[in-house]
């Protein structure tokens, strides 16, 4: 696993030890960033269910200003911190051990807003909850006007339309992986 492009291109990243996480493959990561890179212009990243932090770190490497990494696993938090040190992005990031609901509430209290959000939860436990998580991000006012949300799930999962008034939604399939990209349509 490595940083694919940008300032830290080629730097190796550690994967979370064990079999509980499913790192985004370089092929899928490259496809995601081929889709969203034209929209990256500074801004803040929320990497929810961050695992190794590879998606948030890739976004920093490509020009995002700041990233918040959230994961409930202690091993993931250790791995994210190692990868941030490896890429020298410690000062451009915050890392928190928390479940998604607690994290969203705490970020809302701080009145944080994000331009890019990555949702890559464990498929079996959480992929059906992605619409609920996106709704919570919207309701808690954590999304910038033209935020982009990238959701990773099984390719067999057909993510329901969140809200045609709030989001433009596009689906992609790469082997066993499905990607749904939500483009926020203005607003507050």
TrEMBL record:
The keyword Cytoplasm does not apply. InterPro entries: DNA_methylase_N6_adenine_CS (IPR002052), RNA_MeTrfase_RsmD (IPR004398), SAM-dependent_MTases_sf (IPR029063). GO terms for biological process: rRNA methylation. Keywords: Methyltransferase, Transferase. The keyword Methyltransferase applies. GO terms for molecular function: methyltransferase activity; nucleic acid binding. CDD domains: AdoMet_MTases (cd02440). It comes from the Bacteria. NCBIfam families: 16S rRNA (guanine(966)-N(2))-methyltransferase RsmD. This is 16S rRNA (Guanine(966)-N(2))-methyltransferase RsmD. It comes from Desulfuribacillus alkaliarsenatis.
């Amino acid at each position: 696993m490595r940083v694919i492009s940008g300032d830290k291109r080629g730097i190796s990243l550690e994967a979370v030890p064990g079999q509980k996480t499913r790192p985004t493959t370089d092929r899928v990561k490259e496809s995601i960033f081929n889709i969203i890179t034209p929209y990256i212009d500074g801004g803040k990243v929320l990497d929810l269910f961050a695992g190794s932090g590879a998606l948030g770190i890739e976004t920093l490497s490509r020009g995002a200003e700041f990233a918040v990494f959230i994961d409930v696993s202690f091993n993931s938090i250790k791995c994210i911190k190692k990868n941030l040190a490896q890429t020298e992005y410690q000062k451009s990031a915050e890392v928190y051990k928390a479940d998604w609901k607690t994290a969203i509430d705490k970020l809302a209290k701080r009145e944080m807003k994000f331009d890019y959000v990555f949702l890559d939860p464990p498929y079996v436990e959480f992929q059906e909850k992605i619409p609920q998580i996106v709704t919570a991000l919207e309701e808690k006012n954590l999304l910038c006007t033209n935020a982009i949300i990238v959701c990773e799930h099984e390719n067999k999962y057909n993510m329901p339309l969140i809200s045609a008034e709030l989001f433009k939604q596009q689906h992609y399939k790469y082997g066993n992986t499905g990607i749904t990209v939500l483009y926020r349509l203005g607003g507050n």
